[in-house]
Write a structure and sequence with these properties.
Keywords: Lipoprotein, Signal. The protein is an alpha+beta fold. The protein contains 2 helices and 4 strands; from the N terminus they run H-H-E-E-E-E.
Length: 143
């Protein structure tokens, strides 16, 4: 009987440990599935927002072109790269950083060598503020 108890206790402890490990791995895999589904939903949400932002900018393409031409009269033709739209964090020299900006790359006078970016601040609805349009490198483009 003592031999039976001697073996029963270690075997039952090993069995409980194995069962605990199995249950732990199942809960991890379930939490990973939830995490992955949340990430894919956020990614899908970002794609939808980006499409809405591009559609919004296309609606104001004429006004953007007028802005660029008033900033640099040497620019006669503009091609916007709608696939280049992205959001960046503006760095203003403080630890918390600045606001988010939406950037779009563009090309002037039919050449990819004469590229420039337009930047916009974003509103609460993640749409670009057309009135906040700016560019750092329009003055460097020559005809």
């Amino acid at each position: 009987m003592k031999k039976y108890v001697k073996w029963l206790i270690p075997i039952s402890i090993i069995g409980m440990l194995l069962a605990g490990c199995q249950m732990n791995s199942e809960s991890k895999s379930q939490s990973n599935e939830v995490k992955n589904s949340k990430q894919s939903a956020v990614k899908k949400g970002k794609k939808v927002i980006k499409k809405e932002q591009v559609a919004y900018l296309k609606k104001y393409e004429k006004e953007l072109t007028e802005y660029v031409k008033t900033q640099n009269p040497d620019i006669s033709e503009i091609k916007y790269d709608w696939n280049s739209v992205r959001i960046v964090e503006a760095s203003n020299g403080t630890p918390q950083g600045g606001e988010q900006l939406l950037l779009i790359w563009s090309y002037a006078n039919g050449s990819e060598l004469t590229n420039f970016t337009l930047n916009f601040t974003l509103g609460d609805n993640q749409m670009p503020n057309i009135d906040s349009v700016g560019s750092d490198n329009l003055s460097t483009i020559e005809d």
